[in-house]
Structure formats: C-alpha cells, structure tokens
C-alpha cells in the first residue's frame, strides 16, 4: 500500500490496473433495482466518473439493524478524474440527491454509496477511510466485488480469503 494519506490529490494510476476505484451500492427502500440504476446514472452523469464494470445485483438480508426490509447490493469499478475526497463528495451528493434521509445508523436507505478502494491508497481521515474498514466483514460487499475485481486484494487479503470467513448464504443473485 502506498503511504499516501492525502485525500485531496488523485494519485497516478498503478502500472497495471483495470480501474481507479471500486464503489459499493446498497438500497432497501422503494424500487431497489431502479435505485441502483439511478445511482450509477447520477455518479457517472458528468463524465468525470466512468463506469468500467458493474457486478450483478444481489439480494441480501439486512445487516446491523435487522428489523428492516431486505437490501439490493451491487459493486462497480470506475475510472475517475476525481480525487478521493471529490469522489466521496460525489457519492454523498448522489445519496442526498436521491432523497436519502439519515434516520438511524444502518437504518433503511434509498441509496448508500461507499468508496471501497481507490488504487493502492490508504486514507485515514475523520470522514474518509479507504480501503473501507468494513469490507472484510460484509459478504454483501465481497460477493459483488469479487464479480468485478476477482484479483483485488485489500490490506493484503484476497477477496476469497475474506469471504471464506463469512456466511454468504443469504447473498442471493437477482435474475436479470
Ligand atoms: P454511511 O452511513 O455508510 O453512509 O456512512 C457515511 C459516513 O461514512 C460519512 O460521514 C462518510 O464521511 C464516512 N466514510 C468514511 N469512509 C468512507 C468511505 N470509504 N466511503 C463512504 N463514506 C465513508
């Protein structure tokens, strides 16, 4: 991992990399499949974030706060001209623009967009931690992430190694 701690500068792309960053999308309110589509459309609308690959859509049981409706989750890989901080602002603008109201932590949401990885960067700032600290604990992130970036390692661990420690039985592909 590069020892770069600044979130306001886009790093040069690693020599061999098919994408700049990976994002996780999740939703458990309203037209969930439509919400994922709309979030991708908004994220990429101005051309500064470009979709490289998108995972399948997965249905997953709620996590953390379990008395709520099931989620639809997906991951995308992107190329971007934005710095990590600008990308975080883009993600939050999409969340807010789609009408996300923050009620309780881990509660129902129209859309949640998290930055999972950004090149080899390790960022540890109060409002931005990359790689996302909960990747290794969340099968609903690891399963779609493996679709689009099977060779990715996070903090030295392969996605498969992280998944092997989790129960992914309730992460169910949604037929297209
Ligand atoms: P959430 O409830 O998952 O949407 O969390 C949002 C909060 O997490 C925001 O205040 C962000 O600043 C913070 N945050 C920290 N690291 C990240 C990340 N890698 N991606 C998205 N949000 C992050």
Which features does this protein show?
24% helix, six-stranded antiparallel beta sheet, alpha+beta, binds adenosine monophosphate, Alpha-Beta Plaits, 10 strands, two-stranded antiparallel ribbon, 176 residues
Task: Provide a brief overview of the structure.
The protein has 176 residues and is of the alpha+beta class. The protein has helices at 32-44, 84-97, 139-148, 159-164, and strands at 21-27, 49-54, 58-60, 71-80, 112-118, 123-125, 128-130, 153-154, 157-158, 171-173. 24% of the residues lie in helices and 26% in strands.
Strand content: 25-35%
Estimated helix fraction: 10-25%
Give the total of domains. Answer: 1
Poorly predicted spans: none
| Distance, first to last CA | 37 Å
Radius of gyration from the alpha-carbon trace, in angstroms? 15 Å
CATH class call: Alpha Beta
- Counting copies of identical and different chains, the oligomeric state is single chain
- Arithmetic mean of pLDDT: 89
CATH structural fold name: Alpha-Beta Plaits
Superfamily at the CATH H level?
A: 7,8-Dihydro-6-hydroxymethylpterin-pyrophosphokinase HPPK
How would you describe the shape? globular
Biggest sheet details: 6 strands, antiparallel
């Amino acid at each position: 991992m590069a020892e770069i701690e600044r979130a306001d500068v886009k790093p040069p792309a690693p020599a061999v990399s098919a994408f700049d960053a990976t994002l996780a999308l999740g939703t458990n309110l309203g037209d969930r499949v439509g919400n994922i589509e709309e979030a991708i459309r908004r994220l990429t609308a101005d051309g500064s974030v470009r979709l490289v690959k998108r995972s399948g859509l997965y249905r997953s049981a709620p996590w953390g706060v379990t008395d709520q409706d099931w989620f639809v989750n997906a991951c995308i890989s992107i190329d971007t001209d934005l710095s990590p901080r600008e990308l975080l602002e883009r993600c939050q603008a999409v969340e807010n623009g789609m009408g996300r109201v923050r009620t309780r932590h881990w509660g129902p949401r129209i859309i949640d967009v998290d930055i999972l990885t950004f090149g080899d960067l390790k960022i540890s700032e109060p409002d931005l931690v990359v790689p996302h600290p909960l990747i290794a604990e969340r099968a609903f992130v690891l399963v779609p992430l493996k679709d689009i970036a099977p060779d990715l390692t996070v903090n030295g661990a392969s996605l498969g190694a992280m998944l092997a420690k989790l129960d992914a039985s309730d992460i169910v592909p949604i037929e297209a």
